[in-house]
Amino acid sequence: MRNETIAIHAGYEADPTTKAVAVPIYQTAAYAFDSADHGAALFNLEVEGFRYSRIANPTTAVLEKRVSELEGGVGALAVATGQAALHFSFVNVADHGGNIVSVPQLYGTTHTLLSHILPRQGIVGRFAMSDSADAIERLIDEDTRAVFAETIGNPAGNVCDIEALAKVAHRNGVPLIVDNTVATPILLKPFDYGADIAVHSLTKFMGGHGTTLGGMIVDSGRFAWGKHADRFPAFNKPDASYHGLVYAERFGPKAFIERARSIYQRTMGAVLSPFNAFLLLQGIETVALRIERHVENARKVAEFLRGDPRVAWVNYAGFPDSPYYPLVQKYLGGNASSLFTFGIKGGMESGKTFYDSLKLITRLVNIGDAKSLACHPASTTHRQMSAEQQRTAGVLPETIRLSIGIEHVADIIEDIDQALARACPSRLEAAE
Fold it and tell me: Helices 409-423 and 347-357, interaxial angle, to 10°?
């Protein structure tokens, strides 16, 4: 099936008892066992089924199957937020210690996780000088447990060469973990290019309405954990907490996602509620259509900004002179993301005036909403980073990040125009 069909139908058929067509909200904490032996088998991971909603729930299971099928994976785990998905993914490969080698263009909170939080748990985040495969490979050593990248950087807008990064990771015996939040599987399916694990903040484009937090981990099932037993003992040695179970042997291609569920979801409890899963499913049904409008609107807004004399620069990967333009053609089918940045003439002060003058476009730190959104990353999402770290991540003091929504594009441009007029009135007069 194609994306549009998968987004509506995957993972669910009419309820066999009630014939309900909509996915039911299973608002329950626990599930009855047929017998003592049945309960034991569930807790021993010997049979499939539901035992407690901290571990799995029928509503969230539909969401997991739907996103997994969109990505082309073998299984998925829904969690409370995108940050929880990242955390679980990193510790799942490195809870025996080691390092994660990452591109530098990251969302600010992800950078904080790798640079400040995980090191307290014995996991070191290493940041390459650029997103090139060569820069990444220079940092990989025997203690590396994964390579990490955002398929499209937030807010840098860089498009990573997934195929090249995957080759480097696999040549060194580690998986490639990617955050596919900005691209979504509608624009890019990273498993097709060698990525092993995909992470999502479903809060963004997939949910699409700015109402519901949620995260997802998707397992491609293609990384050979058993082949790299020394580097990944957690997948290849008996787990005492499950009476000697060996994940690579018991679950095969699903070893990563089943360990994440059984160890981290079960014990740390960053659970997605059934109601949130239901709301996210509603958003996913229209994600393919929304992405089309997002992309179309963003291109027109970027072209308007580039042609305006009040604008100093526009960082939009859909322009032919962008260094990422060839990768947009290769990975995104020529459809640049609706997330991009720009700066206006007059620097940070003019940028603040522009930002404060927006009327239709909402000032907040989310992205991927049906509504157009604007953010000043240096003072919000990337505030905890140093000025040098901000520059490396693609954030300048005057940077404005736009997430272009699905309103009528003329209304979006009119709002930007009036805000520019307030911020740079003399520059427009000089140009005329």
Answer: 130
The residues, any chain, with a CB within 8 Å of residue 321's CB and separated by 6 or more, are none
The answer to whether the CB of 354 falls within 8 A of the CB of 344 is yes
CB atoms within 10 A of CB 48: 8
pLDDT value at residue 15: 82
d(CA 267, CA 269): 6
Would you mind telling me the total number of residues written for the chain in this entry? 432
Domains in the chain (CATH in brackets) are 3-283 (3.40.640.10), 288-431 (3.90.1150.10)
78 touches 64 (CB < 8 A): yes
- Residue spans of the chain under pLDDT 70: 379-388, 390-395, 426-432
Residue 384: per-residue pLDDT: 61
This prediction has a pTM of 0.94
110 touches 83 (CB < 8 A): yes
Under DSSP, the state recorded for 230 is T
DSSP states of 286-351 as a string? Answer: THHHHHHHHHHHHHHHHHHHHT-TTEEEEE-TTSTTSTTHHHHHHHHTT---SEEEEEETTHHHHH
Give the separation between CA 315 and CA 340, rounded to whole angstroms. 6
Give the tokens for residue 240: 């005492």
